[in-house]
Amino acid sequence: MPPSPSQSLHRGPGDRRLGQPGPDLGPALVAGDFSALWAYVLGPIVGGVLAALLYHRFLAKGDKPA
After folding, report:
1. Residues 24, 15 contacting (CB under 8 angstroms)
2. Is the CB of residue 46 less than 8 Å from the CB of residue 31?
3. How would residue 48 be classed by pLDDT, with cut points 50, 70 and 90?
4. Predicted TM-score of the model (pTM)
5. Which of 1, 15, 47, 60 is the most exposed place for a label (fewest CB within 10 A)?
């Protein structure tokens, strides 16, 4: 089945789907292939830390809680 138009906008030819981990991560875990597991573990951690730093730097107000 060809990709839908929305999938075509977010993926290029041959790109891996990191936005939806289930279709890739589930079969990889069952097969015992842990070569890309680091991306699923470190990606959210690095993204969360980066988001917190950016929020603190640019969006946090000067008022500190008591």
Report:
1. no
2. no
3. very high
4. 0.56
5. 1
